[in-house]
Design brief:
Elements: E1 3-4, E2 11-12, E3 16-18, E4 21-23, H1 26-33, H2 39-43, E5 45-46, E6 55-56, E7 59-67, E8 76-84, E9 87-101, E10 104-110, H3 125-131, H4 137-150, H5 158-163, H6 170-187
Antiparallel strand pairs: 1-2, 3-4, 5-10, 6-7, 7-8, 8-9, 9-10
Helix pairs in contact: 3-4, 4-6
């Protein structure tokens, strides 16, 4: 009781405890587990930061939304807005945001690059396995679906699919669960 957070040093009354230590929040735990952005998130964003956010009496800038969580580093895509009375008025850009503490973050502006095209149903197994590690939830879901359709031919991808069972995105978890069950059923002759 009253231990210090392994990341920010604040006192913890009822925090999170695991093999990495004691943490005051999920943000602190995720930052210790993977400090900074993963290589995929770095490659799809530019080093330009939001420069922080600031509001006074509800007027200023803020980050809103939370989509496309990265399954590797835990960063999310948020939009930087100019706000009046805490209401977002003018978007300033989309950023990949990695929280270091509950109210502190690192950010990188998303590149104007278009997402790579989704692999086709006849794509090579290695391409589909790479897609399972994509920071884009739609790509992970798509690749899991194709691998599940392949059945026994996708047996080598089971370790990556099983990792997706803990993905932050519910749709990806559901599709990965279906794919794992389908491959295991076809492996056992069912």
């Amino acid at each position: 009781m009253f231990e210090k957070c392994q990341n920010c040093g604040s006192r913890v009354i009822s925090g999170r405890r695991d093999e990495l230590g004691v943490f005051c929040s999920a943000e602190c735990r995720n930052f210790v587990a993977h400090p900074g952005f993963c290589q995929t998130c770095l490659s799809t964003s530019s080093p330009r930061s939001t420069g922080g956010t600031f509001t006074f009496n509800g007027i200023g800038t803020g980050l809103y939304g939370r989509k496309d969580p990265c399954s590797v580093c835990g960063s999310v895509v948020q939009t930087h807005w100019i706000c009046i009375f805490f209401v977002p008025i003018i978007p300033l850009g989309k950023y990949r945001v990695k929280y270091t503490q509950p109210r502190r973050f690192l950010s990188r502006r998303l590149s104007d690059k278009v997402l790579p095209p989704f692999p086709s149903a006849t794509a090579d197994l290695a391409v589909l396995r790479d897609g399972l590690r994509s920071p884009h939830s739609e790509m992970r879901e798509h690749c899991a679906s194709i691998l599940g359709d392949r059945g026994l031919a996708a047996f080598a991808a089971l370790p990556e699919l099983e990792l997706l069972l803990r993905d932050p995105n519910r749709r990806v978890r559901t599709r990965a669960k279906w794919a794992v069950e389908t491959i295991q059923r076809k492996t056992s002759g069912g």
